[in-house]
């Protein structure tokens, strides 16, 4: 029960932050962030109908279509966003713009919107709109939801060229990109680490140097060669990005022919690893 209340509060704050960013940073400068909210900015300028009303008009049929095609689970995840976002947009519509600088507004609007969307996605919620349409299209075309959403959002941003001019459209592209990057960081975490896998005939020497010079933590994984079927060990270690150059130097120093695989580690937790 306590967790449900906490999730509800986070969702409400995420919806408010989304609406706040839209009205304080993006809409005053005609910066279109994609989605139904971006379409509402364009149509408000053309029809002089409030954004909140336009968003409500679009969200209702999209919600019904989602219910019919995506099922009841979809309802639970999007009902708050679909119906409360227009209300929050209306409630924050009279807040004065934070700055007259369009670039600063684009950057701050993108960051705050990304945080808001990340908060909602982390609680299996959303603001409805193009993400719902993307899920419906994906269901029947089997295309990736993320790419479909990006295509829909960029199509809406491109409308800005015909209404507000190409310069505003470019600011919109910057904002959409920022939103995506911030959402990724929010969902995946802020950990700045690399997972490194090393295959070498001199694993023991490399392991000893990593432990003594970098004071890192390593794990030996038993493996077999795919062609020779020989037994060997793969050395796995987790290092901060700042230590990566030192690690490469150690490997080259011991075995110039070692195979090294480096991957981003977006989220690292557990005893002894949280501070990496």
UniProtKB/TrEMBL annotation:
Pfam families tied to this protein: DUF2179 (PF10035), YitT_membrane (PF02588)
Entry keyword set: Cell membrane, Membrane, Transmembrane, Transmembrane helix
Topological relation to the membrane, as annotated: Multi-pass membrane protein
InterPro entries: DUF2179, N-reg_PII/ATP_PRibTrfase_C, UPF0750_membrane, YitT
Residue span, DUF2179 domain: 219-270
Gene3D superfamilies in the cross-refs: 3.30.70.120
Segments traversing the membrane: 7-28, 48-68, 102-121, 156-179
Primary localization: membrane
GO CC term (a single one): plasma membrane
Subcellular location, record wording: Cell membrane
Domain of life: Bacteria
Protein name: DUF2179 domain-containing protein
Organism: Clostridium luticellarii
Organism placement in taxonomy: Bacteria, Bacillati, Bacillota, Clostridia, Eubacteriales
